[in-house]
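Attaching the record inline, Q. Sequence:
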Amino acid sequence: MAVLSVDGGSGPPSELNADRPAKTDICSHHKKQSFRVRSYIQNLKKLVDVELARKQRPAPTRGDLQADLVGWWSSLAEYQQARVFQISEIGAALVTDSGKKPAARLLAKELRKLGWREKRSWEKSGRNKRYWIPPCEISKNPFKNN
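Structure, as predicted:
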Protein backbone atom coordinates (compact mmCIF):
# COMPACT_ATOMS: atom_id res chain seq x y z
CA MET A 1 0.00 0.00 0.00
CA ALA A 2 1.35 3.38 -1.02
CA VAL A 3 1.61 6.20 1.43
CA LEU A 4 0.12 9.53 0.36
CA SER A 5 2.53 12.35 1.08
CA VAL A 6 1.73 15.94 1.98
CA ASP A 7 2.46 17.24 -1.52
CA GLY A 8 -0.07 14.88 -3.15
CA GLY A 9 2.35 12.25 -4.45
CA SER A 10 2.48 8.64 -3.40
CA GLY A 11 5.29 6.96 -1.57
CA PRO A 12 7.65 8.30 1.02
CA PRO A 13 8.51 12.01 0.64
CA SER A 14 12.23 11.26 0.30
CA GLU A 15 11.62 9.17 -2.84
CA LEU A 16 9.45 11.80 -4.51
CA ASN A 17 11.80 14.72 -4.02
CA ALA A 18 15.02 12.91 -4.90
CA ASP A 19 14.65 13.63 -8.64
CA ARG A 20 13.37 17.20 -8.26
CA PRO A 21 15.47 20.23 -7.46
CA ALA A 22 14.78 22.00 -4.21
CA LYS A 23 11.89 24.44 -4.40
CA THR A 24 14.17 27.41 -3.74
CA ASP A 25 16.36 26.55 -6.74
CA ILE A 26 15.27 27.82 -10.14
CA CYS A 27 16.11 25.59 -13.05
CA SER A 28 17.97 27.04 -16.03
CA HIS A 29 14.84 27.02 -18.19
CA HIS A 30 13.01 29.28 -15.75
CA LYS A 31 16.04 31.55 -15.43
CA LYS A 32 16.11 32.03 -19.21
CA GLN A 33 12.39 32.64 -19.28
CA SER A 34 12.50 35.19 -16.47
CA PHE A 35 15.40 36.95 -18.22
CA ARG A 36 13.34 37.16 -21.42
CA VAL A 37 10.36 38.55 -19.56
CA ARG A 38 12.51 41.13 -17.77
CA SER A 39 14.16 42.26 -21.01
CA TYR A 40 10.75 42.40 -22.72
CA ILE A 41 9.41 44.62 -19.93
CA GLN A 42 12.49 46.87 -20.15
CA ASN A 43 12.01 47.24 -23.91
CA LEU A 44 8.34 48.09 -23.39
CA LYS A 45 9.30 50.76 -20.87
CA LYS A 46 11.76 52.25 -23.37
CA LEU A 47 9.07 52.31 -26.06
CA VAL A 48 6.65 54.02 -23.70
CA ASP A 49 9.27 56.64 -22.82
CA VAL A 50 9.98 57.32 -26.50
CA GLU A 51 6.27 57.61 -27.28
CA LEU A 52 5.68 59.96 -24.35
CA ALA A 53 8.60 62.13 -25.44
CA ARG A 54 7.22 62.22 -29.00
CA LYS A 55 3.78 63.28 -27.78
CA GLN A 56 5.24 66.05 -25.63
CA ARG A 57 7.11 67.60 -28.56
CA PRO A 58 5.21 70.35 -30.33
CA ALA A 59 3.57 69.25 -33.56
CA PRO A 60 5.53 70.26 -36.64
CA THR A 61 3.94 73.22 -38.32
CA ARG A 62 3.27 73.09 -41.99
CA GLY A 63 4.83 75.85 -43.94
CA ASP A 64 3.01 77.75 -46.59
CA LEU A 65 1.32 75.12 -48.76
CA GLN A 66 1.40 77.35 -51.81
CA ALA A 67 5.17 77.84 -51.41
CA ASP A 68 5.59 74.08 -51.03
CA LEU A 69 3.62 73.52 -54.24
CA VAL A 70 5.65 76.06 -56.18
CA GLY A 71 8.87 74.55 -54.87
CA TRP A 72 7.77 71.05 -55.85
CA TRP A 73 6.64 72.20 -59.29
CA SER A 74 9.90 74.00 -60.01
CA SER A 75 11.89 70.93 -58.98
CA LEU A 76 10.22 68.82 -61.70
CA ALA A 77 11.85 68.38 -65.08
CA GLU A 78 10.12 69.94 -68.08
CA TYR A 79 8.94 66.60 -69.46
CA GLN A 80 7.40 65.77 -66.05
CA GLN A 81 5.53 69.07 -65.99
CA ALA A 82 3.89 68.29 -69.35
CA ARG A 83 1.40 65.78 -67.99
CA VAL A 84 -1.69 65.65 -65.80
CA PHE A 85 -1.53 64.69 -62.14
CA GLN A 86 -3.82 63.09 -59.61
CA ILE A 87 -4.24 64.80 -56.25
CA SER A 88 -2.77 61.75 -54.50
CA GLU A 89 0.49 62.13 -56.49
CA ILE A 90 0.81 65.78 -55.58
CA GLY A 91 -0.03 65.12 -51.93
CA ALA A 92 2.55 62.33 -51.75
CA ALA A 93 5.20 64.72 -53.07
CA LEU A 94 4.39 67.22 -50.31
CA VAL A 95 4.69 64.87 -47.32
CA THR A 96 6.03 66.59 -44.20
CA ASP A 97 8.89 65.35 -42.04
CA SER A 98 6.39 63.71 -39.72
CA GLY A 99 4.98 61.69 -42.64
CA LYS A 100 1.69 63.55 -43.01
CA LYS A 101 0.22 64.60 -46.34
CA PRO A 102 -1.72 67.83 -46.73
CA ALA A 103 -5.47 67.48 -46.80
CA ALA A 104 -6.81 66.99 -50.33
CA ARG A 105 -9.36 69.80 -49.99
CA LEU A 106 -6.68 72.30 -48.95
CA LEU A 107 -4.40 71.10 -51.69
CA ALA A 108 -7.19 71.46 -54.28
CA LYS A 109 -7.91 74.98 -53.07
CA GLU A 110 -4.26 76.00 -53.48
CA LEU A 111 -4.00 74.34 -56.89
CA ARG A 112 -7.00 76.35 -58.11
CA LYS A 113 -5.38 79.56 -56.83
CA LEU A 114 -2.28 78.71 -58.84
CA GLY A 115 -4.27 78.25 -62.04
CA TRP A 116 -4.56 74.47 -62.17
CA ARG A 117 -7.76 73.01 -63.59
CA GLU A 118 -9.58 69.89 -62.50
CA LYS A 119 -10.93 67.44 -65.05
CA ARG A 120 -12.61 64.06 -64.78
CA SER A 121 -11.92 61.13 -67.03
CA TRP A 122 -15.05 59.22 -68.03
CA GLU A 123 -13.23 56.39 -69.81
CA LYS A 124 -14.21 52.85 -68.93
CA SER A 125 -10.74 52.00 -67.68
CA GLY A 126 -10.35 55.11 -65.54
CA ARG A 127 -13.93 55.80 -64.66
CA ASN A 128 -14.54 59.04 -62.81
CA LYS A 129 -10.88 59.63 -62.04
CA ARG A 130 -10.03 63.24 -61.33
CA TYR A 131 -6.95 64.76 -62.85
CA TRP A 132 -5.31 68.10 -62.31
CA ILE A 133 -4.03 69.92 -65.36
CA PRO A 134 -1.11 72.29 -64.71
CA PRO A 135 -1.32 75.88 -65.94
CA CYS A 136 1.47 75.39 -68.51
CA GLU A 137 -0.53 72.63 -70.23
CA ILE A 138 -3.63 74.83 -70.41
CA SER A 139 -1.74 77.68 -72.06
CA LYS A 140 0.02 75.41 -74.59
CA ASN A 141 -3.17 74.03 -76.13
CA PRO A 142 -6.03 76.52 -76.23
CA PHE A 143 -8.22 74.09 -78.21
CA LYS A 144 -8.07 71.42 -75.52
CA ASN A 145 -11.47 70.72 -73.96
CA ASN A 146 -10.78 71.60 -70.32
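The radius of gyration is 34 Å. The longest helix spans residues 28-56.

More tomorrow.
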